[in-house]
Design brief:
Radius of gyration: 25 Å
Shape: globular
Number of strands: 0
Order of helices and strands: HHHHHHHHHHHHHHH
Structural class: mainly alpha
Number of helices: 15
């Protein structure tokens, strides 16, 4: 399977002329009966060798983490719980054991994180930079950024953080998220893996949200999580706007920028969907949803569908599926179809998604043409099937 990046590389190397590349894209559009841009192509697996290498990489990363934990044991052995003797613990004994346990956790995070990050970077030098393998590159990037985050979480705990308090934990997570974002930027500069930008954006979101949670908790708010949900929604909007910036720089979707936008949309979608549906009571389940709430869920999902069609991205529809399934199941249950509520829900949602997929291009064309001209000019191109394979 050849990606758009491979085709562009062949053109740059002179192996293909730009006309031949355009003709090939037009031919594939005719064969698949869908414009290539509408398919949301992204590289995940090039061949079974990707899966083979990914399995080996995961095993190596697990081994690196386990070795790191063994090294951590040299500096911070597993503390013996003093209560095993059956005697009541004094406050001093409890605090001493808890401090030793916290140091052990911190050392595990530090040494495990360092070794996992180093292993992921080393493997990426070959499998990402030289072999350009898709799935292993994604796994190694996520392992690297996650390991850097864990390392600095451990450093924060070792320097005197108190993980049992929300304020200390929030500050440590904020700082660790900031370093993880920096690590993602360094990785992007070296390897240019499309998902890296989304990983960095996610790390920045963790930094901001952890800091906000810390402030709200310090202010004595009873349920700070409810307020944080709307900050999550705002972060989702910001990441969605960032994704659109990448999309608008490649309206034909023939470069790596389109892949970057795909992962950003995938990150933003649940951050937009969850707060909205949570506010409608879907997470409470049962009678807490109510008929009005269920209808509200369906209305929001239809709005997501219109936005997805306009921007030519399906992530919003996928991220909200569980919520709309719950809402429809509730409605069928309330209107008497108790035994068939799940079957009817699955039938309606499945049919709607398949119909939308089959007629995505013409439906999207109608939606986009209803938008103002200045919006249409900034959106991805409206796909059209050529009359001939060489057109």
């Amino acid at each position: 399977m050849y990606s758009e990046e491979d085709i562009n590389s062949a053109v740059a190397a002179g192996a293909l002329t730009p006309e031949a590349a355009a003709s090939f894209r037009a031919h594939m559009t005719q064969v698949r009966e869908m414009p290539r841009g509408d398919e949301e192509n992204f590289r995940l697996i090039n061949s079974f060798n990707d899966i083979f290498v990914a399995i080996g990489a995961i095993i190596m990363l697990l081994a690196a983490g386990a070795i790191g934990q063994q090294i951590a044991g040299i500096f911070a052995p597993v503390p013996t719980y003093p209560g095993m003797t059956g005697q009541d613990l004094s406050e001093a004994q409890w605090n001493t054991w808890q401090a030793a346990q916290g140091l052990r956790t911190a050392m595990n995070l530090i040494f495990g994180g360092i070794l996992v990050a180093a292993t992921a970077w080393g493997l990426a030098e070959f499998f990402t930079r030289r072999r350009r393998m898709a799935l292993p590159s994604i796994i190694l990037l996520l392992a690297y950024v996650g390991a850097v985050f864990a390392t600095f979480m451990g450093i924060g705990l070792a320097l005197g953080g108190e993980p049992q308090t929300g304020e200390a934990g929030g500050i440590i997570a904020s700082v660790a998220g900031l370093f993880a974002a920096g690590a993602a930027w360094v990785h992007w500069r070296r390897f240019m893996v499309p998902i890296t930008v989304a990983a960095g954006a996610g790390a920045i979101a963790v930094t901001v949200l952890s800091f906000v949670f810390t402030l709200l908790d310090a202010a004595g708010m009873d349920r700070p999580f409810d307020a944080v949900l709307w900050f999550i929604f705002a972060a989702g909007l910001a990441i969605f706007a960032f994704a659109m910036r990448w999309d608008m720089s490649d309206p034909a979707r023939t470069t790596r920028r389109s892949d970057v936008a795909f992962w950003l949309h995938l990150l933003a979608a649940p951050m937009l969907a969850h707060p909205l549906f949570y506010s409608l009571g879907v997470m409470d389940g049962g009678d807490a949803v109510g008929v009005g709430g269920a209808l509200g869920v369906i209305a929001v999902y239809i709005l997501f569908g219109v936005v997805a069609l306009a921007v030519d991205r399906r992530a919003l529809l996928v991220s909200a599926l569980a919520y709309v399934l719950a809402a429809l199941t509730f409605l069928f249950d309330r209107f008497g179809a108790v035994e068939l509520n799940f079957a009817l829900t699955a039938l309606i949602i499945g049919s709607a998604l398949l119909t939308l997929s089959a007629f995505w291009t013409p439906i999207r064309g109608k939606v986009v043409r209803m938008l103002p001209t200045e919006w249409r000019d900034r959106l991805p191109e409206i796909g059209a099937l050529p009359a001939t394979a060489s057109a």
